[in-house]
Records
---
Amino acid sequence: MAPPEDARDAGQRSRARMAIRNRRVANFSIRSEQGAWVTAKAVRRVLGILEDWQYRPDGDGVREIVTFLVRAAVADGGRRVSIHVADEDSMALVTVLSHCAGAPDDDALLRSIAEVSSVRSCGTDAAPDGRRVWALFDAGPVTSQRRAAGAVPGL
């Protein structure tokens, strides 16, 4: 699973649409005006998605990662945030889009996300449609249900 990349078009830099293929994907939006509930809702939904996919994620780690990502997007000032979740090989990718142009790069945010023990990679990019922040992390062990169903290669 590769993180989002920029594309070159006629010599101008433009952001490529995020494309995730051949793996499970889920996405949802939350209105930013919902205040403190935005982060709690996002954490609950991401944990639910990973559990539906038969992972046993580290709840505290996922909570910390999603909180960093969502708070950054909400701070950008957009009316909503979009959250995208994908998985591959026991790794999860969570990407959050702020839908608000002009968000600054934030190296401190990336350092904070990278310090979470389960994070393997993280990044950010900005474009006219808003800032996109993402983290790739261990989704946790697969449940015995998924292992028994043969849904995990090599197990």
---
Amino acid sequence: MNRKINQNRKRKSSIWPDRILRLAVWAPLILLLSFSQAYANHPDFDDLSKLLQKAYEKNDFASAGKILKIFQDHFPVSAEMSDIELEYARRCPVNYEAIGQYQNYTDRYRNFPDAPKALLELAQLYQISGNATFARREAKRLIERYPKSPLMPEARMLMARFHAISGRWAAAANEYAMIIQSHDKHPCVARARFGLAEAKYEMGKFGDAKTILKGLLDQPEAGTDAAHIFLLLARIESQGDNDARAVRYYRIVSNKLPDNFFKATAKNSLNALGVDNQEFLSADSDIKPPPEGPTSEYAVLLGLFGNDKAAKEAEVFFRAGFSTKMESVPEGKTKVLIGSFPTEIQARFFAEELEKKYGRKMEVIRVDPN
């Protein structure tokens, strides 16, 4: 009996050194595995930043979105998170997803320095997407939330454009006037002056419109387009039954100025007046009024594409509620026209937003609605 007890004691005492030895062997591996798991659960901020930039460089936004989610899960209160989220919204190629990112940013970081700029970009994105109502809403939020922001003139320009596109010319004129009165040194003031002249013209206040336009010609400002100014002056003169002077303005646009978006429009107007474009006309020439005919409309030329690409480009705007038209041209290309605007100024406003989106100049052209 005593012998069995002693044997059990010896067996138990021999187990402890084995356990200690095994623990000594496995402990480093256990610690390593625990560290690896901890690293996976808590990724390195700098490493993630590098991965995100690589995803942007490769235009791999599926990966960029996943990396952004990791940032949001593991570094929600990091000082850099606002910059990371805003950059993603700006780079995102899908409008509806970018809109969601901008909305989250402007709600979450409303007191951050970049919040007013983000709100303006969100408004511009809505306008490009064809949702003028929401564009106005975000511009209004910027005006109400950040009344001292240096972006106030641009927000008011968006408001004015919304009213102009909607045909509310008196409201548009008020917004343009506020920009001119309160922000006379801002770069967009020249565009606001022209917008005010356009609004006055549409309201039938031809004298006011003419005075503003003449002022823009006498003191050229950055952001003004001489061809557009002369074109509107020609229309004002036509409304005042001074067709001879209108013809002279049209001929300036058609013949005297460098290549411009309004050259074809001026030529068409001369043809409508029954005037040879090359014919010299004095201010007192006797010209018949323009013949009756179908009203013209204006569209923005998005570009020339292969047939499949053209259909995809047009579909994006069609789903957003825009009128779209595709026309076949030589060399197997298809011309994509967006919009059906009653005035050039409305088409030009829309073209400016597309230029920001696509990074290239957009042409406004006159089309036959029939």
---
Amino acid sequence: MEKISEHLGKDFSMVRLYRDDLRHLESILTQTSDEVTWTTGNYKFESLQELLDNYKKNEIKELLINSRLPWTTIELRHYRSSISVISNEPKDEGIFSQLCKVIEPTEQKFQFLFSFKTYWIVLITYFIAKYAFDFEVHPALHGSFLTFLVSLPIYGSWIKSRRNTLIKLIERHEDSNFWNRNKDKVILLLIGGLIGAAITFLIDQLISGR
């Protein structure tokens, strides 16, 4: 009788990693594996240190990390990332969990705010609420809200084309300043706050119109 290997996997959106994150991933993988390879473009490296010593650029946009025992693949791609572990040993679930804890905090959150699906849901909900319940909205506020909705997917397209997965071969603390490290998160939180304020305004209008 042979136990069938199980697949553990998790997908992420775009991520931003630093050299210390890569060292953390390596330390987890080498707990059980003596073979960890790092592949970017047409180059394959037998260790992280070999990559750091020989890769000429300061940034990597796509990286594939493979190890065996258990068979593990970490894909850091342009628009998405993933972790895959294949094993029949329960203890290897701990390896998977540790890897996820490294990647999850680096994921660029709130990307759904920039999807066209979100845009149409908010727009249709706004017009249904406005005309079904016949409440008045100041023209300036109405225009500002529509301008914001139109600009949302445009800015989202720019984000997805410019702010994709990125691996910086420097320590996290060496990155220039707080704003450069976190400006995308700050902007996304502001946009999320504006959407939340708009939804709150619509709810208040609906309640007051009853």
